[in-house]
Design brief:
about 260 residues, alpha/beta, 6 helices, about 30% helix
Length: about 260
Amino acid sequence: MKRKINPELLLESLICLVLGILLFFCLLSGRAALYVHPRLNGFLWVAAGALTVIALFLFPHALQPKHNAKPSGALIFLLPLLACVLIPAGAVQSKAVSFGNPSAAGAVSSARNRGTVIPGPSSSAGGAELPKEDRNGIMTVTDEGFAKWYQDINGNMKKYEGKTLRFKGQVFRMKEFAKNEMVPVRYAMVCCTADLQPCGILSRGGDAAKYKENDWVWVTGKIRIEEYRGQTMPVCAVSKIEPAQKAKENYIYFTY
């Protein structure tokens, strides 16, 4: 006996429609940036439009009966919907902070082998300016300028040696850190949320121990150049740590 509808095509059209609407919602609300690099937004707009068109094309055919329809075959298309629910946005995979020197020979290759990030020209920096000393001799790094500054301090360490910096990030620690050590980081996205990497400079001293993982803090201190775990790198000798508000943008972005 024939059915009055084709449940297989009906399910497929509904799944395509829901996926298309979900993509449009994520793009319009800005939530897509929690999952993928903004440079991919163009592809997402096309995908959202294509899914909606496919759904509208399939729906009239779904009203035509079909013998032995098998709607279970369309259930595989539910996997993207389940992924959106089960995979949290911003789930950081890396447990190693980036301590990169982009000017060192072979740094990019060796750093990637260690799972760290070496910044190239920053796509998020745009017209952001590098920090300048104020009347008190303090260089404050803005949220918008973090990516550009991070690239600059790793490539031009001597320029910052002895300078007093004030910068903001989330508290990040590795198991080998001392109690008074932490890295105030911003998370860099290369392609999607699966490759998020914490980027920042080692900060030592002050009352660092009282702040918990992922707390947002302002750190003020003098920059020294030190050898750490076989790398020459800038280290902040902390003089002051203050609670901070979350940055407006969730991530920073580098191009390679």
